[in-house]
């Protein structure tokens, strides 16, 4: 599947945010472990979450889907051994969460996936699980899937690095209540993407499990059981970021419903970022509206002041010439630079996305069409996603004439882009981010666009409904 994106005029509309992928994964797993029947309302049915759903079924959980209602009859922690190897497709979340959970099933469980998934580093998690009595190993002894997990989760004390993937931490926490003994987990080093762990603790608490969190990023979990319940999945700020950003880029007006102001999602910082870049944001309890950009005489709306994040750096901070020259620079070809580049009314930004690495593609796309230079930092761990997102975003934006400097932990982007042919690298977030650039420049042809189904299955249709000229070819 390919997408052809043409230049759009102002867009307008009211849409419902896709359900949160992160919360759907977590809700399915805790409902699977709970005893009794849970009703999950408005879950996300996408390639990734269906991988989790099917894995839960393979381990003895009964699941019935009826439109926007997913009824899960839990196992009470009494999991079954899968009859076959579990193919988790391209879902890294499923892989990491199931690695610990599979230790609760009798016998051996084998986890694998597609080419991309088999390149995901897992050794840190395997090392931590070993000290908890879990016998899990990589079949090729290289820390990569396929992996074999044997029955047995003794418990005890372990530690894990926090700078590679917060999903390692969530994996242990989600299954720890069913270990034979209490579990003490210490996060060592820099703790990146911490809001995702807070989301994990939030849903665990809502299903009746309490985790004691001590200063110094230490977690203690006693033996407990999840309680089945009705649970509604909130909207996904990551997926909504493309809709809100489109309105800001095109000076349109888009309201996205099912986005809650009290959400624990770290990607809620997109509201700060858009406002800092000059977008007009209106926030209500359960929805967000972007109404184009602010004029120079306007001030930020008072009801958004509470969302200011200390992760956003002052735009007045300069980028030293030494720093620019010390990094490998990706520049467009001579032919491309002769093409007229487009920018919108947004301003460049300096931002640390350490706790929101999934926003890297969105913010990079915004920076590509903004005025001035943007500096995105803190995203070295985004190199271990579906693709090396730092590199692939730099590579594909360069094809659109954008001046990009790739750093180890981020990107420096000078605004100005034109049309061109780009690749998704089978990464859903690249598909949607590159679409944003095309809405301003026109003439953007995205290959491998079917990847959007991983998190936002009806993305092209929703964008078309807002007035975006997107054609599936």
TrEMBL record:
Protein name per the record: 3-phosphoshikimate 1-carboxyvinyltransferase
Keyword Cytoplasm: yes
Alphabetical GO biological process terms: amino acid biosynthetic process; aromatic amino acid family biosynthetic process; chorismate biosynthetic process
GO cellular component term of the entry, any: cytoplasm
Function field: Catalyzes the transfer of the enolpyruvyl moiety of phosphoenolpyruvate (PEP) to the 5-hydroxyl of shikimate-3-phosphate (S3P) to produce enolpyruvyl shikimate-3-phosphate and inorganic phosphate.
Active-site residues (renumbered): 358
Pathways per UniProt: Metabolic intermediate biosynthesis; chorismate biosynthesis; chorismate from D-erythrose 4-phosphate and phosphoenolpyruvate: step 6/7
Localization annotation: Cytoplasm
Binding positions for phosphoenolpyruvate per the UniProt entry: 21, 92, 120, 167, 389, 429
Listed NCBIfam families: aroA
Keywords assigned by UniProt, alphabetized: Amino-acid biosynthesis, Aromatic amino acid biosynthesis, Cytoplasm, Transferase
Limits of the Enolpyruvate transferase domain: 5-293, 328-463
PROSITE patterns per record: EPSP_SYNTHASE_1, EPSP_SYNTHASE_2
One term of GO molecular function: 3-phosphoshikimate 1-carboxyvinyltransferase activity
Family: Belongs to the EPSP synthase family.
Coiled coil: none
GN (gene name): aroA
Binding residue positions for 3-phosphoshikimate: 21-22, 26, 165-167, 193, 358, 385
InterPro entries per record: Enolpyruvate_Tfrase_dom (IPR001986), Enolpyruvate_Tfrase_sf (IPR036968), EPSP_synthase (IPR006264), EPSP_synthase_CS (IPR023193), RNA3'P_cycl/enolpyr_Trfase_a/b (IPR013792)
Subunit structure: Monomer.
